[in-house]
């Protein structure tokens, strides 16, 4: 549902090597139809320069941006080719891989929850992610620590509303801000991040009317909607939800635009059938056939056989 340090258990099935096989089969089918295989860049948005923090803030209230959480480099490549404005990913090797396939996309990298135990460590982690290629840093930390990062020029994104990393305090997965008192608490939490100098804040599973009013009042900060309606500055979903690539629970605020899980099942069936046929043909001496073997030159073969004697 948000920038969790580990994927939700129900989201364990995400794009993997099966995606590459799917793409290969799609291209194979295109060739079989005697059509021209589309080049990957033919379906992309118009080439553009990478967004900046300044540009995103300047467009507050003028347009909405899209943000997608990616858990694989393949997902990030899809986002970049589709023209998604912002990609979110973990740092480290994944972050470097995401940056390599999306050089012109604004990338947010996350500090894993619990990786920092004080403000100095938060600053150090923030710089590490910027040096990895991040344009901004997500951190589920207190406004005090965000202030320390902001003072060093690190664009930081906080988290309010429902915060999965603190699930036990919410009593489970639920919407936050449905009562006036709780909505005011979300508002004050948001303003605390703005006062700390945060570049943005993720507002998760909050009634859309509440989120809209908070966004209007957070004049110096981008508000990211994760299930908080259309009144925020950025719309944020998980790639695995958009692509339908997992077999777990799809939250109400998400929308699935294709069914890659079924495609993966289809590919698995095709792959098993191919392996089974290979195994059967070996047992029946159908493989290798004449077109799978190399014939020796008769004279050279005769000389080889004499040499054996």
Per DSSP, the total helix count is 12
Helix fraction by DSSP (H/I, runs of at least 4): 40-55%
Could you say what the CATH architecture of the largest domain is? Alpha-Beta Barrel
In total, how many beta strands?
Answer: 8
According to CATH, the fold-level topology of the largest domain is TIM Barrel
Mean pLDDT value:
88
Shape: elongated
Q: What's the CATH C level of the largest domain?
A: Alpha Beta
* SSE string: HHEHEHEHEHEHHEHEEHHH
Using the CA coordinates, give the radius of gyration: 26 Å
The N- and C-terminal alpha carbons lie at a distance of 73 Å
Low-confidence stretches: 1-16, 23-46
**Biggest pleated-sheet summary:** 8 strands, parallel, barrel
Q: What structural class should be given to the helix and strand makeup? A: alpha/beta
| Side-by-side strand order of the widest sheet | 1-2-3-4-5-6-7-8
**CATH homology group of the largest domain:** Phosphoenolpyruvate-binding domains
Strand fraction: 5-15%
As for the number of domains, it is 2
